[in-house]
Design goal:
Epimerase_deHydtase; globular; seven-stranded parallel beta sheet; 342 residues; binds nicotinamide-adenine-dinucleotide; 37% helix; Rossmann fold; 12 helices; UDP-glucose 4-epimerase activity; three-stranded mixed beta sheet; UDP-glucose 4-epimerase; isomerase; alpha/beta
C-alpha cells in the first residue's frame, strides 16, 4: 500500500516507518520537523517526506495514497496545558481537516492515533471501548473530538479507525524522556535514583512503541469490516501496572539504583486500567513487550549512547524543547516555524 504517515519524525513515527516498510508498504512522511534533530544514537532512515505544518494541508497533498496514518500532534498533557488553544487548533481542527481532505482525495483508510487517556479517571474496573469518555486535559479532550468528528464522515469508501494507545515506552531514535518508563530509567541511569513524584498508587496502562507500530500495521490490512469506524485499545493487560510497580521494574534493571517515592505531586486523578480484548478478538493483535523487557532495553541504549542529563531534561522533553524553540525565536506563538518551512 502507499501510506502517508503524519508525524513520521516523532517518537512513534520513527519506530513505525521501518516497521511499515518491512511489510512492503511504500511510506511517505509528513511533518513540520519540531523534533527532527532530537536524536539519541544513530539517526533513523527517514522516508521521503512532505515538510508541512498540518494546519496547511490540502486534498492535493493526499492524492494517490491508499491510507493515512495520522500521528502528528502536540502530544502530551503538559504541552496541551501550556497552550490549550494551539492544542485544539493542531490536534483537533487540523486533524479533522486532514481527514476531510483524505476523504476528498479518495484515501480509503484513516488510522488515527488516539489515546487511552480519553477514559480519564475510570475507577477500579478495567475500561473497554464502550466505557464513557471522561477526558481530564485539553490533550485528551482534543482526541475525543477528533474521534467524534471523523467518525461522522465515515462512509463505505472512507474507513476511519481509532487506535487508543496506552502510554508508550521503549527506545526510539527520536527519544522522549517525558513518558513514565523512559523517564524513570533515564533518571536512574543519570542519578542512581528511581524517583516517583506521586504516591505510586495510580494505574498506568503501558505499551511498547514497537507494539503500537505493529497494531497500526495490522489495521492497514485487516478486513474493512473489522476496522470500519471502530475504536481499539492498544496494549496488553499484563502492562496495566501501578507507578510503584513500574518503578520496581526499573530498580531491577538499573544496577545500584534506589527507589524514592516522594509523593510531592499530590493525588493524580489520571488512574485507570484498560481492557484490551477487542483488538485481540477482532484483529488477532497482541502486544508483546513487557515493562521489564522495555526497562532493560532502555537501560542498554541509554548507557550505550551515553545519555546526558542536559539532553534528558531539554531535547528529549517535549515541553522544554518547544519552549526553547519559542524563546529562541525559531517558532512563533502559534508553534509555527518563523522562517517558512523549506
Ligand atoms: N507516545 C505516547 O505515549 C502516546 C500514547 C498515546 C497516543 N499517542 C499519540 O500518538 C501520536 C504520536 O505520538 P508521539 O509520541 O510520536 O509524539 P511526538 O511528539 O514524539 O511526535 C509528534 C510529531 O508530530 C509533529 N507535529 C506536531 N505538530 C505538527 C504540525 N502542526 N504539523 C506537522 N507536524 C506536526 C511533530 O513535529 C512530531 O514529529 C500522537 O498523536 C499522540 O497523541 C502517543
Amino acid at each position: 500500500m502507499r501510506v502517508l504517515v503524519t508525524g513520521h519524525q516523532g517518537y512513534l513515527g520513527s519506530i513505525m516507518v521501518p516497521v511499515l516498510r518491512s511489510y512492503g508498504h511504500e511510506v511517505i512522511g509528513l511533518d513540520s520537523g519540531l523534533f527532527a534533530d532530537c536524536i539519541l544514537g544513530p539517526a533513523p532512515q527517514d522516508p521521503p517526506a512532505i515538510r508541512l505544518d498540518l494546519r496547511d494541508i490540502t486534498a492535493s497533498h493526499l492524492t494517490g495514497f491508499d491510507a493515512v496514518i495520522h500521528l502528528a500532534a502536540l502530544s502530551n498533557d503538559p504541552l496541551g496545558a501550556l497552550e490549550p488553544r494551539i492544542t485544539y487548533e493542531i490536534n483537533h481542527q487540523a486533524s479533522v481537516r486532514l481527514a476531510r481532505c483524505a476523504k476528498a482525495a479518495g484515501v480509503r483508510r484513516f488510522l488515527y492515533a488516539s489515546t487511552c487517556s480519553v477514559y480519564g479517571a475510570a475507577g477500579e474496573e478495567a475500561v473497554d471501548e464502550s466505557a464513557p469518555l471522561r477526558p481530564l486535559t485539553p490533550y485528551a479532550e482534543s482526541k475525543v473530538r477528533v474521534e467524534d468528528d471523523v467518525a461522522a464522515i465515515a462512509d463505505p469508501g472512507f474507513s476511519p479507525v481509532f487506535l487508543r494507545n496506552a502510554t508508550a515506552f521503549g527506545f526510539s531514535p527520536r527519544l522522549r524522556a517525558d513518558i513514565v518508563l523512559n523517564n524513570l530509567v533515564g533518571y536512574a541511569v543519570l542519578t542512581g535514583e528511581v524517583r516517583v513524584l506521586s504516591d505510586g498508587t495510580p494505574w498506568r496502562p503501558l505499551v511498547h512503541a514497537r507494539d503500537i507500530a505493529e497494531a497500526f500495521a495490522r489495521c492497514l490490512v485487516a478486513p474493512v469490516d473489522a476496522i470500519h469506524c471502530h475504536a481499539f485499545n492498544i496494549g496488553t493487560e499484563t502492562n496495566n501496572l501501578t507507578v510503584a510497580d513500574i518503578a520496581g521494574a526499573v530498580v531491577d534493571v538499573v544496577p545500584g539504583s534506589e527507589l524514592v517515592i516522594t509523593g510531592e505531586s499530590g493525588p493524580d486523578p489520571r488512574s485507570y486500567r484498560v481492557d484490551f480484548s477487542a483488538a485481540r478478538d477482532r484483529l488477532g493483535y497482541e502486544a508483546k513487550w513487557t515493562v521489564p523487557e522495555g526497562a532493560a532495553e532502555l537501560y542498554e541504549k541509554y548507557t550505550a549512547f551515553s545519555l546526558k542529563m542536559e539532553d534528558f531534561h531539554e531535547r528529549f522533553t517535549r515541553l522544554s524543547h518547544l519552549k526553547e524553540l519559542r524563546e529562541t525565536g525559531i517558532l512563533d506563538e502559534s508553534m509555527r516555524f518563523v522562517n517558512a518551512i523549506a
